[in-house]
Write the structure tokens for this entry.
Amino acid sequence: MYADGAYAGLHQHRHDPGTRILINNTGKAVRRMKELSVTGESPDESKQGQSSTGPTQAPSEPREPAEATAPSEAKASSEAKEPEAESAPKAKAGTSPAWAAAPRPSTDDDARTDGAIPTDPRRSLSAGADARKPVPDGAKAPAEARQTPRWAAGGTDVAGTDSAAQATVALPALGAGAGAGEDTARTPAAEEKRPAPAAAPSGAGARPAAVKPAQAPVRESEPVAPVAPPRPPAAGVPGPRAAERPTGVPGPVTPARPATQPGTPPGPGQSEQRPRPPIDLLAQLTNTPAPPQTPMRSVARRFKIWGPVVVVLAVGVVTAQMVRPLPKPTLALEGSASYTFQGDFSVPWPDHGQSAAKVVGAGSLGTSGEQKPVPTASVAKVMTAYVILKGHPLKKGESGEQITLDAQAEADSAKKDESRVPLKAGQRFTQEQMLQMLMIPSGNNVARQLARWDAGSEDAFAEKMNKVARELGMKDTVYTDPSGFLESTKSTAADQLKLAEAVMQNEVFRQVVRMPSATIPGLEKPIYNNNALLTTQPGTAGIKTGSTTPAGGALMWAAYRTVDGKDQLLLGVTMDQRSPGGDSNAHLKRALDNTQKVIAGIRDGLVSATVVKKGQVVGYVDDGLGGRTPVVATADLKSAGWPGLKPAFKLADGGRAVPHEAKAGTEVGVLTVGDGPGAAKVPVALQKDLSEPGFGSKLVRLG
């Protein structure tokens, strides 16, 4: 509707017929607007479905209307023609009537040039809008089709009043913001392209704002259905007075592009809507624009996001590494821990057969001859005694169980081609006495009796013998009988040396084998040992002789040599010794003679030397995380050996757990020099304080 100034201007020409019509129509419209304002009814509700040019568009967000004021030029022109009207109040946002925002139909009155005022009341109410022909989407209307009202082009009305000036005063009052004035005051040269109205939807509701289409060719003018005039005010409701008339109408709502629903492809003319970054959404909510993206800001943002995560993970890793159990400390040898006995030495081995020898605790003296399995003869009785003692242990001074002889033992006593002891069925002897008859005179019948007593049969006992041999690592040994009389019982000197070292650890056995003779109650005569070295070679301590035609002469021997006040045990085996005469006794004598030379040579070659000095670094404690603490010998260590010997060095905890922390001088292990139970030993202690691994070592450990 018009502002008060424009309304008063029209009253100046009220005597003109055309002017009177315009005034009447304008008054009706003002009264109707007042009525709607009083009743709360929206003008848009009364204009639903009046446009036939196309569908209406959904209104976008309401904009803050600008204060409607008349331009200075229009005000000056109005003051020259009529008294100053009352100031118009500001239009409220969201009160724009539908007929003010909708394009009006084009009529022939827009082309009038005779100065007559159009009689169509709708023209009077919608003077702020250009009359246009419907234009298809994307088309641009030609210049001749865009008609400009006479008063907008600067024409003069019938009363001589400058219609352009009046329009300038009135037009800003028709809209709530600058958009309304700009729409009504367009000239053909500056006019914008208008969108083609869409088909009107059915039903009540606010008319959506039109979407401005792209330029397209203009279609020919088509007849447009006339817009219904505004309804007259209700009966009894007075029309608005000049001072109460609203001075402006909210301008047309800016059309908004319909948003694309999630998951729906964009329509024609619409751009694809993509999710905005969180920082842009935050800036939109706080009305703070997002800062421009730079490489430095990108790095800072990543740091802010991932920094706390990394810190939490780092704290967890550090905590886990600190609370994990520490590895068990271990002792390790230093590379310089070694010793070699000075001088030259060689063992006088037999020129034939095979032999092996060692000094228990110092090391092996080596072997001679080819180590191939050969018959063992009576040397096999050593395994028989060892199995009996394992199954029926005896301590020093004990006699053991009573064993009753069977008829087979008496029958075997009559065999002339074997070594035997005269026995009778039913006799009873102790276990110790049976061992003496087995090892001293080498009775075959006694060996068989012990096998039947222990395992029930000779074959079952032979299986037990083979089982023990495998436990000792005797890979080239096979036992087929407990006495060794059978040629099928075979072994090597190296294998029998392993058995000698094991059985000589039994005190009862050592006591029996070093006896030259024994008197046993129940026997008619004393028994004598066939090992002549027990009486002819000083320091000889047994062990067992053997001789048969297939086996030749054999001897498992033991001897002692005192070095630095300590007895050193010498062990050896001589096998497959043969005499040119071919007699078994001659073969045994040859084995005894050759063994005597070996024993004498080894005894003469044994010496003592200080292999480790007090305070010498012999190893270190490894904490498992790279830390090493040196350990030293607590005293001088002497060991027996022979020239050229390099004894083995071993460092162990001695049955005590190595601590994680300890003071310097704390004993943490034992250094062993040599091999076997008789090896020399000395305690070792920390050279400096032993500390627990530090923070860095705990942190970087992987195991």
